[in-house]
Amino acid sequence: MKFDIQPNTSPVPQSERDIILQDPGFGTVFSDHMVVIKYSDDKGWYDAKVTARAPILLDPAASVLHYAQEIFEGMKAYKTPDNKVSLFRPEENARRFQKSAKRMAMPELPENIFLESVKQLVTIDKDWVPSIEGGSLYLRPFMFASEVFLGVRPSKEYLYMVIASPAGGYFKSGTPAITIWATEEYSRAAKGGTGAAKCGGNYASSLSAQAEAIEHGCDQVVFLDAAEGKWVEELGGMNLFFLFDDKNIVTPPLAGTILPGITRDTIITLLHDRGYDVKETPYSIDQWREDAISGKLKEVFACGTAAVVTSVGKVCSKAGEFSMGNGGPGDVAASLRDQITQIQCCIGEDPYGWGMKLDC
Ligand SMILES: *Cc1c(COP(=O)(O)O)cnc(C)c1O
């Protein structure tokens, strides 16, 4: 697929960009360009372009605005020590994007077009990749139903886009260990639902739960299974790991209600290599409480592209609260975070070839 490259004629001046990149925050400032590819049932994928980032015109009857046929991905571009730019396992994002599309009855964007679109945007906006420690250019590929039609059926037209936003740290407080709220009120996904798809609707339905967490003074919400309200699933946007004595690890299984995180997969592989016994098996909130109080549980951490690896220090719920050890950050979480961020920036060993350095 050929991309029509239309450079932004009034990009953000370098002096302004340099100031932004010193402390970009998360998700509020954007690079100069975006990718747009159209799809229709008749023409397939067409009209690929890299163009100045700008608002898009949507008809009020565009079906995404009514029935929420929308999916997205989240990935990052990193600055390498030799001043190049790298991606981390981007083909995994491409594959997951296809799976999400399938679940939401949307067309599957070919893997090579997804990868090319991301590379094109990173190349033209490479000066937007922050050099600060922990900095990255957050990339947001997404697709939505754009057909002007109010009937309930899959849209016949879609827009695929990629935008980019420089990012510093993820959690505002920058705290080393987070506190999470175990909600009994809300669930995130049920059997047969869309829990394994990265779709906007999952996030829309998680916001009340996240608000409940914040009301209780917590940073994030943890969801339990929808059927029994017993089994630990994941946070609003991060997967969970439980570390016990003697190199035993538990993480909830991918049984359709959990988002298959690429960071989750990365951590499972790295822990295996370190000699851990990683079990993908259900773990209940009651067991969690018991193991935390008895001291059997050594560390709990959450993971995802945005925050990489973050220790969970405390869990609160209507039943009371409990802490992991002294409630501080864990050593295994910290060492995994270091190892992963090094691979992402193409520093140190990368036995699986996960880092992809771009020539731009
Ligand atoms: C994106 C996401 C994750 C983390 O996936 P990564 O590929 O590791 O970034 C976890 N849970 C949910 C609900 C997500 O949307």
Helical content class:
25-40%
The CATH homologous superfamily of the largest domain corresponds to: D-amino Acid Aminotransferase, subunit A, domain 2
Gap from first CA to last CA: 19 Å
What is the makeup of the main sheet? 9 strands, mixed
| Broad structural category | alpha+beta
Mean pLDDT: 96
Which CATH architecture of the largest domain is right?
Answer: Alpha-Beta Barrel
CATH names the topology of the largest domain as D-amino Acid Aminotransferase, Chain A, domain 2
Model regions low in confidence, pLDDT < 50 over at least 5 residues? none
Give the tally of structural domains. 2
- Ligands bound here? pyridoxal-5'-phosphate
Beta content: 25-35%
**How many helix segments?**
8
Rg of Cα set: 21 Å
Give the overall shape, derived from the CA principal axes.
globular
CATH class of the largest domain: Alpha Beta
Let me know the number of strands: 18
From N to C, what is the helix and strand string?
A: EHEEHEEEHHEEEHEEEEHEHEEEHE
